[in-house]
Design goal:
It contains three helices and six strands. It has helices at about 5, 10-15, 45-60; strands spanning about 20-25, 25-35, 70-80, 85-95, 100-110, 115-125.
């Protein structure tokens, strides 16, 4: 099974209508069209929805190299709001990789290429073999 097929089974991401756009070694790109269900009481995108998009994209990028990776810490900085009808794009990139740890950065932009959020996370890489093949260069 390839990594995109594995992560398409993520029920929470599916419920949020997150789409996997691209996957390659140490990188992933995902999108989410903002709908009414993503909005908070003020009518803007709920921070948790943006976090979910970034976190899901991180999970894919961090699991491209043959070890199961799980988040140990994550933080997000919200830069600009978004509303229903916007499409948000998350791009996750590996910044550091070690035998058992990694650091990833995710940028979230809207359809106008405006920065919406910056997300950074640390992962712990387990010696478990994931149920999908690692991505080679």
């Amino acid at each position: 099974m390839d990594i995109a097929s594995f992560f398409k089974k993520d029920r929470f991401a599916a419920a949020a209508d997150i789409e996997i756009e691209e996957v390659r070694k140490a990188y992933a790109r995902c999108s989410m069209k903002i709908q009414d269900k993503h909005l908070n009481a003020a009518g803007s995108t709920q921070g948790g929805a943006v976090f979910t998009l970034a976190d899901f994209c991180l999970a894919i990028a961090a699991n491209t190299q043959g070890k199961m990776a799980v988040s140990t810490q994550a933080n997000i900085q919200f830069i600009k709001g978004s509303v229903a009808g916007d499409t948000l794009y998350a791009e996750a990139r590996e910044r550091f990789l070690h035998k058992s740890t990694g650091v990833y950065q995710v940028e979230v932009h809207n359809q106008h290429h405006e920065l919406i959020a910056l997300f950074q996370a640390n992962v712990y890489r387990k010696d478990l073999i994931p149920p999908f093949e690692p991505i080679s260069e």
